[in-house]
Predict the structure.
Amino acid sequence: MSDVWVFGYGSLIWRPDFPFEEARVATVAGWGRRFWQGSTDHRGVPGAPGRVVTLIKDPQSVCWGKAYLISAESREEVIDHLDYREKGGYSLHQTEMTFLGGPQECADGLIYIATPGNPNWLGDAPMPEIAAQVRASEGPSGLNTEYVTELARALSEMGADDPHVFDLARHVARAGRDDQA
């Protein structure tokens, strides 16, 4: 086995919980990040799923995230760990990523994507409905609002432009202010 890159675009950006040799800001072209996947094992529970991100094909989009270099020695252990972490409807795919912050280089790697038809797929909804579901959801990994705000914070720190994530973060924050009024 050889070293492998794993591309994270959700909680893996701000909460990697596995050993890695290197982390780099990277993008994947042709994919847009959306809060269309249900989470019944991390940010929600069965019967009351939270919402987490997946990718949808969109030729006009570029998804920012973090690429982690996994050593050959820990590859099997890390992939087994990520298979379990991403078990709620995600499957492993190959992707080409472009590294940022230095010479633009490309590399092949692995990515977890939840596709329509998986048991936790929620799909599109109006942003106020997505925000209401996020505000009402909590699971073993914590509040769903934390997932949204931490992802928006991490993307902002990278200089990423992600209108869907930032719009949802604004809706979630606005709902919080409205609740306190």
